[in-house]
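Quarterly update, task 2.4: coenzyme a persulfide-bound model.
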Amino acid sequence: MIRDQETLDALVENIARFVRERLIPNEDLVAESDEIPAEIVSAMKDMGLFGLTIPEAFGGLELTMEEEVMAMLELGRASPAFRSLIGTTVGIGSQGILLDDTEAQKQKYLPRLATGELIASFALTEPEAGSDAASLRTRATKDGDHYVINGTKRYITNAPQAGIFTLMARTNPAENGAAGISAFIVESATPGIHLGKRDKKMGQKGAHTCDVIFENCRVPAANLIGGVEGQGFKTAMKVLDKGRIHIAAICVAVAERMLADALAYALDRRQFGKPIAEFQLVQAMLADSKAETYAARCMVLDAARRRDDKRSVSTEASCAKMFASEMCGRVADRTVQILGGAGYMSEYGIERFYRDARLFRIFEGTTQIQQIVIARNMIRDANL
Ligand code: COS
């Protein structure tokens, strides 16, 4: 749903200009230094990018899902690390509060998330609980008006910068599965939280992940999301449904960027006396990539509109995330191929995107998990 086309157009144009003038020129620096320059972080705050999805009542822009994906289709045209910096705060780190938490907790946290003063991070994955998220072992034991948290979370995006974690932990040890899990807001300054070393990753330099270790960390009972135990897994799944549409939009944007770069190269690069874009075997790679990015773009927009219509989007979010991330991988591969030797050299940037894009098929649910979600939903609906 687009509430006001003119306002959205202005926002999208503003982001597009920012991407062109500030982000793309800094991509190499971010890749080399593994840091996003402070002035870019503060420009992102000034533009309201941390508050894109936070309700206006709490100081955000309150974008609908369709508006959010339109914004991401622009922001995602620069290195994914820039998007990642705001990604957990506009997405998986904050949405648990928005979807399921109490008014008091919303008042407490959302305004500072909207300004970027507080970065939110999503702590679900553990050393022994990745795709099988319901098997998580982190414990939250009630002790008076607090919960005591013990456990380790792994590969937590933006953990080094986080002000709060949306943490999934087991409150009922007698219940091994999803029903024993609760969600909490945990402030990163709480005693008993230790961060591991920054992970060394294949790509997405500038986006940081690490372990987060909780040792007898005391969290006020008021920070149990929604005030009810046993609802945390469902909160996480709802958050991921939305997150998967967001990531699918980023996959489309990255694919469109790589394709634009490959087309420019193919028009410029001459072999056998003419631009390589005139060779049909190169054209086939361009055309397949164009058709697939267009298909993924349509899926993302459709899934976003369905969510705005308050329809269930578990299936469509997984379809969009699966197709768009796999598509992005194929486009990355073809664009490296179109650039040939130059595609393998870091100065042309495509090999960096090739490595960055590999994560899309893994995080927020692997392709195989999306397949499980889609097929299970089909079977459930057939049995209704
Ligand atoms: N929205 C709301 N509720 C949902 C839901 C959704 N999208 N998906 C599942 N649930 C509910 C189910 O209805 C079920 O509730 P009831 O017991 O009341 O019926 C409960 O949650 C448990 O669901 P389910 O039985 O499907 O859980 P499973 O353990 O079988 O696994 C998968 C579910 C595999 C889909 C889940 O573990 C998953 O998504 N794994 C990937 C995790 C992931 O994406 N990690 C990335 C970390 S963030 S980078």
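Highlight for this quarter: The mean pLDDT is 98.
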